[in-house]
């Protein structure tokens, strides 16, 4: 096996609890995005477009859908004997197996995988960010500065900086301080969760961190501060393109909407930097005689007999006559019945909406059960849910995965309520 100069480790084990029912049965990186993709497609495509052909994908929470999506890596040209893509799950060692305790521990448990390829450098990536980035340019920057660690950063508005890990740097870009979600940020350089490390240096820190029982075993909380405290050569690499962490309902919805209104920022039609995905082949979408589409992304295999405005429609969706879809995300193979009106909603895969249903209307009242997740006026419907005819559903409503018609206790679901499995309406 030839030695690789750089390999990638893609952290894809997160539960993504802030995405609510969208991640009830699948890992966050496997959530559908942009009418054709899954979130992880962006990081994987960035790797192969950056000439990184060896990627370890570290999975943990609900990995089946993610594993099936990645397969042997063929869509990304990673079905290779030497390198390619490898799924790395926690596994039994001796008598005791253990879950990944944090991002750093996940990499620590896979030191043997990295050592097998003997790379000089590793790039650590998150599987839940939407962006297009050439990691080879970041590697050139890392080498030029003889860095131990290079952290990709993006400028954010000062009013948003307290939501991120902030890198404080000298004028030349060398990092002297890292602050996790500071109340009074000194700079606007937010960490993107993209790190390049010189492997032998990182390996030493991972081993030492594992021996510290007080550690959270996390890159942001432990590894990076420890390296800074010990005076390691750490540099901020400034990225200026589109980047979005889609870890909340609002951010996920906004990023899909960005594809409609800010296409040049994230050009999915650029032949020089394709985003690859193993989508099944479907026929071209069809727009019926009364159907209309304005400012929307509509994928292959859709049948549009109603009106679609400012929305993202995934493959195989069916929008019936008289139906109006506005400011919404409709995932694959979902059905919307006649004369239904849907606004500011996210419908999971294979959802069935009856006739004359109204969704997303009423007051913007946060969800009573999970106000921290469902609070921005967006109603979310889990995969395979069935919504009965003549149903009126408010804002910030959550409808559980697989809900049947019989499990609706009322045809009027007020804003902030939930419809859960077992016939409960909360």
What Rg is obtained from the alpha carbons, in whole angstroms?
A: 23 Å
What portion of the residues fall into strands of 2 or more residues?
25-35%
Q: How many β-strand stretches?
A: 36
Strand arrangement across the biggest beta sheet: 18-21-24-27-30-33-35-36
The profile of the biggest β sheet is: 8 strands, mixed
Q: Considering DSSP H and I runs of 4 or more, what fraction of the residues is helical?
A: 10-25%
Head-to-tail CA distance between termini: 57 Å
Overall morphology? globular
Number of helices: 8
* Overall average residue pLDDT: 90
> Structural class, from secondary structure content?
alpha/beta
- Unreliable runs, pLDDT <50, ≥5 residues? 92-97
Care to describe what's here?
The protein is built from eight helices and 36 strands. The protein is α/β, with parallel strands linked by helices.
Concise account of the structure shown:
Helix content is 18%, strand content 28%.
Output the keywords.
single chain; 426 residues; alpha/beta; 7-stranded mixed sheet
How do the helices and strands line up, and which of them pair or pack?
Layout: E1 6-11, E2 32-33, E3 37-38, H1 40-49, E4 54-58, H2 64-70, E5 84-88, E6 92-93, E7 96-97, H3 103-108, H4 111-117, E8 121-126, E9 129-131, H5 135-144, E10 149-155, E11 165-169, E12 175-180, E13 189-198, H6 199-210, H7 219-229, E14 234-238, E15 243-245, H8 249-261, E16 286-287, E17 292-294, E18 297-298, E19 303-304, E20 307-309, E21 312-313, E22 318-319, E23 324-326, E24 329-330, E25 335-336, E26 341-343, E27 345-347, E28 352-353, E29 358-359, E30 379-381, E31 386-387, E32 392-393, E33 398-399, E34 412-413, E35 418-420, E36 424-425
Parallel strand pairs: 1-4, 1-8, 4-5, 10-14, 16-19, 17-20, 18-21, 19-22, 20-23, 21-24, 22-25, 23-26, 24-27, 25-28, 26-29, 27-30, 28-31, 29-32, 30-33, 32-34, 33-35
Antiparallel strand pairs: 2-3, 6-7, 8-13, 9-15, 10-13, 11-12, 35-36
